[in-house]
Amino acid sequence: MPKPYSECIENLEDIDSEYYRKVIRSNLTYRQLDCFDAYISDEIYKKCGCELLLSNLIVEKKPCNTYQKQLCGSDLFKEIIESNYKSKIRSLCPLECESVRYKISKSENKYPSESYAKELLETNMIKNLFSNRSNVSFEELSSNILAVNVYYEYPEQTEITQSAIIRWDGLVASIGGTLGLFLGIMFNFLNSLTEAYLRKKSKNFQISNFLYFNIYHTD
């Protein structure tokens, strides 16, 4: 939930930050973590004159393509990570209220299998790739083609909705009720204290009159 219940920003278009714009230019959905990476990338460029490949951000300027520049960028990256840079630029990279994250895992296998290679060699696409040659070996085929499959671990989406337990009017009423309760207790305590004081004073006055009366009649 947005302010005042959390620090997240609901309307991302209100963000006026070059780091935010770099994330958007990279064709990414805004995330605070990517915005932090954009800041680090900008700082590395200022000092080292090149950009490191960070996260999924596009390299808009000269990349760090030499050993010296990569070393410069790596050292500065470590220095920034160990500093308190996040609190410094939090206003420029605010937290998003909605975020999407994927747990990524990678596995590799030999492709294709020998039996599937025979089937592939019969397809027009593979024939055109090898100029209709008929003597394509399995090793040549496997070294020239690649298959990439992307799977989602769970084909479902979990949405968590937060709602305010108490709103401003209820909060004010609750505070007012609590103050009224404590004021009532305080006035009751003061009333009891005053009553006890008056009773004690009245009792002392009666004792004084009694002693005076006895002394007067004795004389």
TrEMBL record:
InterPro entries, per database record: ENaC
Transmembrane region(s): 171-193
Membrane topology of the entry: Multi-pass membrane protein
Gene3D superfamilies: Acid-sensing ion channel domain (1.10.287.820), YojJ-like (1.10.287.770)
Pfam families: ASC
Primary localization class, coarse: membrane
Record-given protein name: Acid-sensing ion channel 4-like
Native species: Brachionus plicatilis
